[in-house]
Every structure is written in structure tokens, then in C-alpha cells.
Amino acid sequence: MAAFDLPRPQFMYSEDIRMFEDMVDRFLDENADAAAQRRWRNQGYVEQETWRKAGEAGILGATIPESYGGSGLDFRYDAIVMERQGRKNALNFAYSLHTTVVAPYLYHYATPEQCRAWLPSAIAGDTLLAVAMTEPGAGSDLQGMRTTAVRNGDEYVINGQKTFISNGHGCSLIVVAAKTDVNAGAKGISLFVVETDKVQGFERGRLLDKLGQEGRDTAELFFNDMRVPAANLLGGVEGQGFRMLMEQLPKERLVIAWQAMGMIESALEATVEHCKTRKMFGGTLFDQQNTKFKLAECKTRATVAKTFLYHCTEALLAGKLDASTASMAKLFVTEAQAFVVDECLQLFGGYGYMTEYPIAEMYKDARAFRIYGGASEVMKLLIARSI
Ligand SMILES: Cc1cc2nc3c(=O)[nH]c(=O)nc-3n(C[C@H](O)[C@H](O)[C@H](O)COP(=O)(O)OP(=O)(O)OC[C@H]3O[C@@H](n4cnc5c(N)ncnc54)[C@H](O)[C@@H]3O)c2cc1C
User: Which of 81, 115, 238, 348 is an S-S bond match for 180, by CB 3.0 to 4.6 Å?
Assistant: First the structure.
């Protein structure tokens, strides 16, 4: 039995993709091996140097338009990076948040001059990107956010607080959601680009101590009369922030699903190998019928999840991925991830509980996938709207 052997569909295969994939593998082998992963987890972040090396390798700019220094490729290349990161247990390097989630806010909604000012250094790995929506009192219900941005001459004065912000510790450019009209609900939300080394009144909180994904830096941010140039209002018109978030969310949900899928495949591969080599009762763990049944269930969920993921990816490339289908992808793949990783850990027995075994790290890391980027319950709500 192969752990996982779903062939790639034609649209996901080309000589260019294969070469890109080889390059990503080389980068991860050299910069994200077990020692680097351990170091990231211990210190709570990935060093700037690793980001720069990713920039040099061309990984950070693959899908950014050539006019802004990127390679102008499409989402398939992002998917390949996430798949390979998952397979090599290197998902704590928050490449996708930087490149696939935040950079598109810039090139879709900033002016060409701003993109030329901001994107090349992000592609080079010199500027680390973050997006700050969540607040202590507003996560799933973003309309409840309390951060405000008040126009004052040619500046906005921003006051408020954000929490759980990935890359919050190391970032130097943040897309911040704030209310420009506190009485207008979703239409009162705007997005601002904050260059952290150019503003007063910006403070980072401590690195948050998490259950898993310890190598991803996650921090609180505080804005106290923080002044940003009015030109940094994304799109140039107040009240467009919620629409922009909604436009980008289908892809962001697919991004989370691709990462979850990479982890599923890695878990299955490691577990099948373990089961076939772990000796017991005169044979191997794999010889037990329960093991075969469990692995069969896991492989089935993995195969269904990936087939649907390919379907959604093809739809995204064609500009046809709607919000509810993207929500189904995030819901299904991250729930499959939880099931598979838990069953796989069980098959490792006590070794599965030891953090020196990747399956234990996966178990911890997987838990956040059903919460961030919209909790599973919020996905169900969005799917139900299409019924
Ligand atoms: C590791 C990590 C990284 C993150 N990175 C970022 C980031 O970079 N930027 C950012 O802005 N945010 C980030 N977040 C925040 C994340 O997006 C929020 O945690 C998430 O949206 C849930 O919001 P909340 O934590 O406020 O929980 P709540 O909104 O309080 O929800 C709690 C629970 O209530 C339930 N629930 C919520 N809504 C409904 C509903 N309508 N119906 C039924 N049940 C419901 C769900 O079970 C949910 O899990 C991150 C979070 C984590 C854990």
C-alpha cells in the first residue's frame, strides 16, 4: 500500500512546475530541516535570514506580478510551496500568509507607485508582511471591531488593539482593518497599510505562547494615536475594507486547506512507515486489521479531500471559486486533517506523544487550522447561506 498515491491532474503538471518544485524542495532541505524547525519552535519565530534566503530563491515572489519584481506565475505555484512545506513539516515558516494572503491586498488595492515601493522588498524577504483583523473582542464577528481610524488633514489617526497576529513580531508592513465610520457596520470598515518603522504610536506586545505552531510568531499589536498617511488607505476610498476582505477570503481559505492537506500527506506517510516497521505479536503493527481499517479510512478522507482541493484550485484559476465552495474546502480538509492526525498519532502509541516525533508536532499544529481564517462553525454558516 502506498501511503498516498493520488496522481496530479493535468492542470497541476508542467515542466516549469516540476522544476519549481525541485527548487522548493532544495530550499526546504537546506533551510527548514529538523534542526531549523526545532530552533524556530524554541525561539518562537523564523529568522529574517530565512525569509531573505526564500526571497533569493524566488519563492516569495512567484505569484507576484512581474511589474512589481515577482515572477507573475499563478496559484498553482503557491499550492506547490504549501504542499512541499506540509510534506517536509515546515509549515511554521509562514510563507503563505506573507506571499499568498497579504501581498495580494497590496497589488490588488494599492496604487502602482505604492506597489513599487512596498512589494520588491517583500519579495526579497526584507519586509515581512502581516494582516491585522482580529481584536480581543472581535474575531469571527469582525464587524464588532473597535479599532478606529479618524481622518485628520492628510493623515488618519488610528487607535485600537489587535491580537493573534501572525508575523506580528517580525513584520514591518501590516494591513490593518479599522473603522472609519463606527455607525456604518461592514461599510464602516477600511484597510490601512502601516509601515511600522515610519509611524509613531505603534507598539508590539509579547510573543504569544501557543499550544502549537510555536515557530510562527504570533503577537498582539497596539495603536495609540498612530498616524498613517491618508494615501495608505487601501483603495483610496473609505468603507471598502470589508468588501476587500470578502474578495480575498476564498483564496485565503484555499491556502489554509492546501497547508492542511500537506500535513495530512506527511502524517500518512510517516504513519504507514511506522506501522510497517513496528514489530508486535509476531508480525508488524500493520498486520493488525484495526491498523489497516484506520489507515484505509485516513487514505479515503485524504483522497477525497485532495480531489476536492484540486477541483477548487482549478475553479480559483478560472476565477470561479465562490465563497461557499472555498468554505467547504477549508471545512472538509481541516476536519479531515484533525481526524487523520489524531488516528495517526494513536498508531504511533507512546512515541506519538513525544515531541521529537513529527506526528506529535502535527497534532499540536493542526488544532489551529479549524479556528483561524474563519472557524469551522463560520464555514458552516457561509455554506448554509448557499442552500
Ligand atoms: C495561531 C493563530 C494565528 C492567527 N493569525 C491571525 C492573523 O494573522 N491575523 C488576524 O487578523 N487574525 C489571526 N488569528 C485570529 C483568528 O482568525 C481568530 O482566532 C478566529 O477568526 C476566531 O476568532 P476568535 O478567536 O475571536 O473566536 P470567536 O470569534 O470568539 O469564536 C469562538 C468560537 O465560537 C464559535 N463561533 C464563532 N462564530 C460562530 C457562529 N456564527 N455560529 C456558531 N458558532 C460560532 C466557533 O466555535 C469559534 O471557534 C489567528 C489565530 C490563531 C489561533
Answer: 238
Domain segments of the chain as ranges: 10-127, 130-238, 243-384
What pLDDT, on a 0 to 100 scale, did the predictor assign at position 5? 85
User: How many whole angstroms separate alpha carbon 82 and alpha carbon 25?
Assistant: 11
Nearest CA to ligand 1 atom 32: 140
Mean pLDDT of 306-314: 98
Assess whether 269 carries a catalytic annotation.
no
Residue type, 210: K
48, amino acid identity: Q
Structural contact between residues 98 and 167, judged by C-beta atoms closer than 8 angstroms: yes
Using CA positions, which residue lies closest to atom 26 of ligand 1?
Answer: 139
Write down the pTM of the prediction: 0.97
pLDDT tens-place string over residues 34-79 = 999 999 999 999 999 999 999 999 999 899 999 999 999 999 999 9
Selecting from 3.40.50.2020, 3.40.50.300, 1.10.540.10, 2.60.40.10, what CATH number does the domain 10-127 have?
Answer: 1.10.540.10
Under the banding of pLDDT at 50, 70 and 90, the label for residue 296 is: very high
Q: Which CATH architecture has domain 243-384?
A: Up-down Bundle (1.20)
Per-residue cell: 387: 442552500
Q: Residues with Cβ within 6 A of ligand 1?
A: 130-134, 139-140, 164-166, 210, 213, 218, 368, 371-375, 377-378, 381
The architecture CATH gives domain 130-238: Beta Barrel (2.40)
Distances (CA, A) of 260 to 95, 120, 195, 325, 371: 14, 29, 31, 17, 13
Dist. CA 284–CA 275, nearest whole Å? 7
Domains 10-127 and 243-384 share a fold: no
